Fold each of these.
Amino acid sequence: MNEVLSSELFEAFASASDNIYIYVSDMKTGVTRWSKEAVDYFGLPSEYIEDTTTMWVEHIHPEDRSIFIEDISKVLNGTSRKHNCQYRARNRYGDYNWVECKGSVIYGEDGEPDLFAGLMTRLDNRNKYDPITHMLTGYELMREDFNDAGALMNVGIDNFRKINSQYGLSYGNRVLVYLAECLKAHANGALVYRFQGDEFLIYGKGMNAEQFTFIFEKVKQECLTPIKEEHLVGFSITGSIVEFGADEGTVKVLAKSELCFNYAKENRGSFVTVYSADIEKSVNRKKLISESLLESIKEDFKGFRLVYQPIIANTGDSVVGCEALLRWKSDREDIGNCYPDEFISILESNGGMKDVGYFVMREAIRQASIWQKNFKEFNVSFNVSYVQLEDAEFVPDIVRTIEKYGANPQRIIVELTESILNVDTVKVKKSFELLRKHGILIALDDFGTGNSSFWMLHNIDVDVLKLDQSFIRGLEGTIGIDYAIVKSIGIMCDHIGCKTVAEGVETKEIWTMLSEFGFTGLQGYLFSKPIEVADFEEFLLEYNMGKNCS
Ligand code: C2E
Ligand code: CA
Ligand code: CA
């Protein structure tokens, strides 16, 4: 092997720059030596490699391979002395970065090609320091080997996009600088990295979750009331902490950190969450459920069905209608039981809610048309989220479905659940108007929990108000605030001519109280749990024959 490959000269050049990697090939033996930095960064098998071209082609982005092969072939077959091309090469994290690869053939005294020496320059423009906050860049953290035990904290600004769009980019930058400086001031020796967008990573060798929680709380306070910088409005932050043992490895620690940070953002923004195996389990379960839900949708809503819970007149002598409630059973045994409180929010975040919403609507209306043949006055409610009402096709499809099955629109009730925040109120209002125009009824669900229940009551015509179960449960025992609220809502609805349904009625005492307050409909386990179609029909027959629970 040519002695240049093992010379000090090679070593000296190899460590000359962070962004440049060198390689020298012995053209006679075919052995190439790569700099240690190149081995680390690209994750090469070793410094000395026999068939470098085959190995390196694997690292090149499939779309760019032909450019490289064409150019290097000329060098190898002696038609060119120089190699010069740009392409994307994969590093050891699996990311592709643009590199510029330049090399020259060096001839020996015998006139034959002796060495092929080259430089690989990374063109990804990654600096050591972030130009805005002057903190180390996330890339620098990737270079840490995580050999010693310690902790890593991820901190992000809540609603940073909104801050930028509301106050402008330069204001957004000042917020970033402010947070970076707060983190640095409290870091207690840990290193602060600007990771990506509004996220910072704080890496502390030998530190633990307790110390980082303390730092987070301090920084959080200074962000909520930014005293050190004038004209900066307070903002909140969310954080996650991962503790790691010695030799856990960069990739593993960063993966845990990302998982925990996403969990923190979704579940309890504005706090700090410490990574645990339970969090990982819950994230994995969610992922599994999400995949399985999407499969079910693809297979024509396999596993989805509706169950029905009766709504009883306050007198207790008739079933005035029912609420359709969604159920889902996965094929996968490891999922087990999964109820709407768990899967609805997953459907909302994985984009499946729109399709499932159509399924629920069609199924509920189809069933309503069957029951309304025998019981003309029978109401069927189904649940709809505001996101569905933003879809311009949804309400026209309700109207078409009602027509198709010949159901009575004045006995179809759309129940609206969560708050109206973050939705396009103009589109939603249009949908309301269209519903109204066709005589379809609107119920406000879970009244008293959302942020805009009174706003809704004030701005749209609501036919039915469904008081949240938590108030009904609060009626038990001593007469307190819930008693006053429930009583006043009963009076208010009576006054504005809006029907009222109380959910979660579990005892006879509560039923009596609600009747006194003027609630028109009662729904709860006292009468029946949500049940299958066949059971519901049996319930209807029995109830109407006077076999009620009184
Ligand atoms: P919700 O609309 O408030 O539905 C009432 C929930 O209360 C149902 O839970 C019902 O089983 C439960 N419930 C009724 N009576 C009692 C009682 O006396 N005691 C107790 N402890 N609970 C009672 P479920 O079926 O698990 O549904 C939970 C939530 O999931 C629903 O709350 C609704 O927000 C959502 N959901 C269900 N089906 C659909 C759907 O088709 N579309 C949408 N967007 N959301 C749905
Ligand atoms: Ca409901
Ligand atoms: Ca409800």
Amino acid sequence: MSDVFILAIESSCDETSAAVVKNGCEQVSNVIASQIKSHMRFGGVVPEVASRHHVEQITQVIDEALKIAQVSMENISAIAVTEGPGLVGSLLVGITAAKALAMAHQKPLIAVNHMAGHIYASQLKEPLRFPLLALLVSGGHTELVYMEKDNDFQVIGETRDDAVGEAYDKIGRILNLPYPGGKAIDELAQQGQDTLHFPRAMMHEKHYDFSFSGVKSAVINTVHNARQKGEQIKPENLAASFQASVIDVLAYKTRQALLEYPVKQFVLAGGVAANKGLRRVLSTMIDKEFPDVMFSVPDLTLCGDNAAMIGAVAYSHYCQNRLTNLTLNANPGLELTKN
Ligand code: KG4
Ligand code: ZN
């Protein structure tokens, strides 16, 4: 088969992105227009503002991705787009652009699950080896996913309340850190100690589900109590204590899952996969305790939302002729299943 070039589009939340991906493993271009500055003053993503930004950016971002890749529409094999999960208004902008391009240029259209994209971001570095276990940690999701083979997702555990990234961002807000709080808390945590020993919810329960609302409330209550009493808590110790609680739970559940599911590869994925502490603890644990399991985590720029990861998933859809058509609609609550 000759080389397959996929033009991929991602607009599920607050990043407008387009990429050209070659054979599912090589990012030829990956343009990401972030809206973080616009949402910062609100302390979170405002859906209506996000949609408007996508509308303003999408054409330019797609043109730039094609220009950087030095590929014309003629050489594009298929167009891929995020179907969900995400914000409906944001998703619709990318989907509408993808459908228009597919129709105008008579190209096959491929619908991609955003969370599958986070897992397949690792394929842009090295081929995925099945069976694999993925820990998906983002602003909206926290899931342990077992994949026996390509395009076969079994969610073995997930959060019952807040996603990890959500907890980071809410605590960031309480500490008056810039939005999104994850990166800033991670940096603070590197300078502090776990002096506060926050709870590790559900850690020893015999399932793979998570709960992070308890630790989030414990941190917020600690801050409020200290403020009322006029006491000082070192923010770096608060950040380190929160991060230690989160990482302990994620690492413990991951270890248990790796004991039950023998896999060839472990993939850490999603925006929170950029977390320095989490990357260090999981890679050390896996190297030491599971030397036959390959540890993979995408490069920092590919941990957050981007279109190259959508192109990586789309390649396997393309090879198996799993195409969609112009009736494609946004699916804000799309779950990870086979398709
Ligand atoms: O995957 P992503 O870019 O968007 C969603 O699909 O949700 O994830 C964004 C999340 C935010 O909650 C952000 O605070 C978090 O990833 N994040 C981090 C770090 N960098 C980004 N959380 C912890 N440590 C980081 N270094
Ligand atoms: Zn994401």
